[in-house]
Amino acid sequence: MSEEKPTFTVEEVDSVTPAPRARVDDAPAPRQRDYLDGFLAEKPQDIDPGQPGGSIYDGVIDALKEIFDPEIPVNIYDLGLIYGVEVSPEASVAVTMTLTTPHCPVAESMPGEVEMRVAAVPGVRDAEVNLVWDPPWDMAKMSDEAKLELGML
Question: Is this prediction's pTM over 0.70?
Answer without folding.
Answer: no
